[in-house]
Structure formats: structure tokens, C-alpha cells
Amino acid sequence: MRMTGYALAGLLLAAGAGAPALAADQGPWQIRGRALGIFPDADATIGALPGANVDIDATATPELDISYFLSENIAVELVLATARVGVRVTNPDLSLGSVWILPPTLTVLYHFAPDGAIRPYVGVGVNYTLFYNDKQPPGGFASSVDYDNAWGFALQAGVDIPVDDHWSMNVDVKKIFLSTDATVNGAVKAEVDIDPLLVGVGIGYRF
Question: Is 7 strand, coil or helix?
């Protein structure tokens, strides 16, 4: 993950040096609001339960992102969202309650057609996921579940469709490669791959 950070820093420095000026009618900032679907692709190794796995519920939540354009083609984007997900052990079927996730993600985007009627982009970045406010059902298998906050790696692709000089429609897809260690009842250890696919639809404002 340290190498990913160095690569992002190098890309930012290269983008800022000698970058072409932005079009006169477009400012460097863009804010988007999206309706976001979160679709985990969970897998786990649970030491005390050989053959068991983990299932994490899909969910939906609002998302906010803030972009700053370093040039006509290159932007840096910070994505903010939080959501509650339900977690279960499978084989045997046991509830692990629910937990809130907060996964701020910083990506560097390349916009292929900044003046086009359709403006696709791709990106790469880093993610840091915080887990908080976990809840377990009374009398269930788990009295407590602790999740370690974790770094992840993100890939992104999307498209902006401008409506006028400032407003646009947006479709965005991200894949986050994320793993965490979980401790159930203070003793049972699990290595959990979450690897969610994030699909968002919304609007953006450039200024």
C-alpha cells in the first residue's frame, strides 16, 4: 500500500507540472451527489469454524464526492459515504449483527473528453475504511464483533453527461479491494475479504 501512495503522489506532481489551463467557462471544482448501491463480494477464513464463510448484505446510501481539476484531463476526487451492513456467518448460519462502515476514498481521475457531449473517465486510488457502531442481536451467537480499520485499493470508471455549463448527470462504478480482521466474542478470529462493488447514479455541479 505504501507503493500505491508513492505512485499517487508522483502522478499528482506530474499532473500539476506544466498542466494545460482549464477552459475559460469551467472552474476547477466539481461536486457530485449520488444514490449509491454497495454490493460486497465477501469471503472469509474463520479459524474456529473450518468451512464457514461470511455473507455481507448489499445496501444503498447517499454519496458525496468533491473533485478538483489539476488540468482539463486530470482531477483528484474525494468520495464520502457511510452505510450500515448486516453480516452473517454461513455454514453454519449465524448472525454477526450489523456494523456501520465509513470508507473515504481518494482517487486520481483521467477524463478522456473534457469538452465532449459524453465525458468518460477512469481512475485509481486508495481507500481507508472505518468500522463503527456494531450491533448484535440479543441472545445470538455473537456478543461482540470488533473489526479492524483497513486500507484498500480502488479502481473507478464513469461518465459525465453535461446538461449545461455547470450541471451534469453522472454514472460511476468503483471496485474496492478491501480486507479486514475481525474478532468475535473477543476470541474467534476471522480474515474477511469484503471487496465491494459500488454503483452510483447522480448529478454534478462544476464551478
Answer: helix
Ordered structural domains, the chain, with CATH? 2-13+31-206 (2.40.160.20)
Contact criterion met (CB below 8 Å) for 54 and 184: no
Residue type, 82: T
Q: Which residue has the cell 464551478?
A: 207
Confirm whether pTM is higher than 0.70: yes
- pLDDT at residue 17 above 50? no
Q: Where are the beta strands (DSSP E) in 14-149?
A: 29-39, 43-46, 53-56, 59-69, 74-81, 83-90, 94-102, 105-111, 119-135, 145-147
- 83-90 and 105-111 beta bridge pairing: unpaired
Distances (CA, A) of 9 to 14, 54, 70, 128: 9, 35, 13, 17
Q: Each residue of 93-140: pLDDT tens digit?
A: 889 899 999 999 999 999 999 999 999 999 999 999 999 999 988 877
